[in-house]
Each structure stands twice: as C-alpha cells, then as structure tokens.
Specification:
alpha/beta; Nucleotidyltransferase, domain 5; five-stranded mixed beta sheet; two-stranded antiparallel sheet
Length: 342
C-alpha cells in the first residue's frame, strides 16, 4: 500500500469496497472493509486521493476521511457509470470510481460542511411536509366529492370543506364526518409545522448577507434564496453563469453532430428543487408582466409579446439563475430601477 495513489471507495451500509490504484494505474489492493473498521483502515494507509460517488452519506464520510489528511473527491454517479466494466458488483464499482477520479477532465462535487447540510435538510423537510399536506387535502377533497361536497383546488379553500364537515350537512354519514375531521386535524398539524419551518427560514434569510442580496432579484423570495444558499455549490465551482444554469438543467439539450448544431428542450438535469423554485418564481414574474405590463423595451416585454407564457418563464428562470450566480460570485446587488429583466 506504500505506492497507492488513488483509492476508489464504494459506499454501502455495512460493508464497503475499496480499490487502490498506483500512479501508473495498476492495482495496489482490493479490500472489503466493515463500517466499524473504515476509519482505522484509512488511518493506516499513506495520504492519497480518496474518491467516492456523491450518494447517501457521502458528505459524512468525506468529512471523516478528509480529517485524516486524505484528499477526498466526490463524483456524480452518472460520471462513474461509463467506467464500469461488464457486470456490476461492488469491486467493479470501486474500480470504476478510481478510474473516473484519475481522469484530468473529471468534474467533482464539492464536499458540504455540517452547517450547509443542515440548511439543506430544513428546506427539504419543508418540501416534504408541503407535499404531504397537498396529498391530505386532495384525499379529503376526493372523499367528500363522493358525497356531493365540492371545493376548488388549493389550501385556501380548505375552510369550505371544514364548514361542510362541522356544519349540519346531512349528505355526510357520521363515519365519514369522523374520518374527515381526522384528515382536517392532520392538515392543520402539517400547516403549523410548515409555518414554523418558514419562520426559521425567514429568520435565517434576514441574517444571511448572500440570501438578502439574492432576494433583490425579481422572482426570488425567501424560500428560493435560502435554497440557493443551502443546496447550490460554491459559486467558484463554476467558471461562468451559463455553467451554473446548465447545472440546474435550464439550458437546452444538445444533439449536435457533423458540425451542425441542434438544440432541443431544456435538459432538466442537475438540481431539480432549485430548478422548480426558479421556474415558479419566473412564472409569478411573467403573470405580473401579463397583468400590469412589462417595462417598454425590456427583455421581458419582448419575450412576452413573442413567446408563450410558460416558455417565457423557463427562459426567465435561466436568466435569473445566471444573475444569481453573478451575485453569489461577485458579491453585488441586483438593482435596475424601472425594468424587470431589462
């Protein structure tokens, strides 16, 4: 193990597979390591590059192994797959990880610290609770529609269903009323938990300078700003704003060949939570422009007059992502009076 240069580590719950390679690419060792002995193993080998796939618990092990003095690199699983030879198993995966890490043009994932992971967990927990509340509301609406009680979509109309359950509507059997009250209690509980998380995110946004600067961009609010701060890699990881937009999946998919450039729909690759938030914010800006009118001569006014609203929203989300990268990279503030996206 004295000459080992790269160690490819295939992560698992209990049994990890390590593949050590020398600087010339030859195999130094292949080891199966239990979870309890993983840190002791890396403490016993010389300092080298340790590569892992950016999957579950990868950031935890990257911090633990990095504290021992090793250079830790995380690779997106999609970039490791082409290096897997024939049959897939733990040993082949570990070897593929080591091979991918040795490529000079390989792109790596930045290791997150504990605080940034905690911020991301707060956002993802809120997102999960919002989905659960939507599921419960849809279930309640569906059950009550079977008895002729109808309400429009959205949580703002839940009061209409609650009035029907708690009122004297004789269309609802007693058993149905009991079950509907259970769902209403569950929806109210989820709403309280979401409110607590949103209050925490607002407080965090007021204290974070980057989040405050991001909220100066039209279409980016508290949730989107804190999500960008928590889920996006460091701005220095990208060479230009287009790279950040491509990482979010907001750039066209290329199908070019023979010197002919063919651009398709947006790739939808990368961080889907941030992409969804940016598009939702852009939709709100486009709707405002359709109702109130965009500033004359601005980019948004030209797009709204020529393109469908949803296409304009996706293009605006791409533009917003590039502006957000510029603010995070250079520490500036978005401040163009009188024009949205001019």
């Amino acid at each position: 193990m004295e000459n080992v240069s790269i160690v490819g580590l295939d992560l698992a719950k209990n049994v990890f597979q390590a593949h050590g390679a020398r600087s010339d690419g030859t195999v130094a060792f292949r080891e199966k390591i239990s979870r309890a002995k993983l840190i002791a193993f890396f403490s016993s080998i010389p300092k080298c590059m340790v590569a892992m796939e950016a999957c579950g618990a990868a950031h935890h092990w990257a911090r633990e192994i990095g504290a021992l003095g090793h250079e830790v690199r995380l690779i997106a699983p999609i970039y490791v797959k082409p290096f897997v030879k024939r049959n897939k198993n733990d040993a082949a995966d570990a070897e593929a990880i080591a091979e991918a890490a040795s490529r000079p043009t390989m792109r790596f994932v930045a290791v997150k610290n504990v605080e940034k992971q905690a911020s991301g967990m707060a956002f993802k927990t809120r997102d999960l609770l919002v989905r659960q509340r939507t599921q419960a509301i849809n279930a309640l609406r569906g059950h009550m529609s079977e008895y002729g009680v109808i309400a429009p979509n959205g949580p703002v109309h839940i009061a209409r269903l609650a009035d029907a359950v708690n009122g004297s509507d004789d269309r609802l059997p007693r058993a149905v009323i009991g079950l509907c009250r259970m769902l209403l209690t569950h929806i109210a509980s989820l709403g309280e938990q979401i409110g607590l998380l949103e209050s925490d995110l607002r407080a965090r946004a007021r204290q974070d300078e980057t989040a405050k600067r991001l909220m100066t961009i039209p279409g980016i609010g508290v949730i989107c700003a804190t999500a960008l701060e928590a889920l996006a890699p460091a701005a220095e990881s990208f060479g230009r704003s287009r790279d950040f937009a491509a990482w979010l999946g907001l750039t066209p998919r290329q199908k070019s060949s023979g010197g002919k450039t063919r651009l398709g729909a947006t790739s939808r690759m990368g961080q889907r939570d941030l992409r969804r938030l940016l598009i939702c914010g852009a939709v709100a800006v486009v709707r405002w422009a359709l109702r109130k009118g965009a500033p004359e001569g601005s980019w948004l006014a030209r797009m709204v007059s020529r393109k469908p609203p949803l296409l304009t929203a996706v293009a605006l989300a791409n533009r917003t992502a590039r502006i957000a990268w510029a603010l995070m990279a250079h520490g500036s503030v978005y401040n163009i009076p009188g024009a949205v996206g001019a």
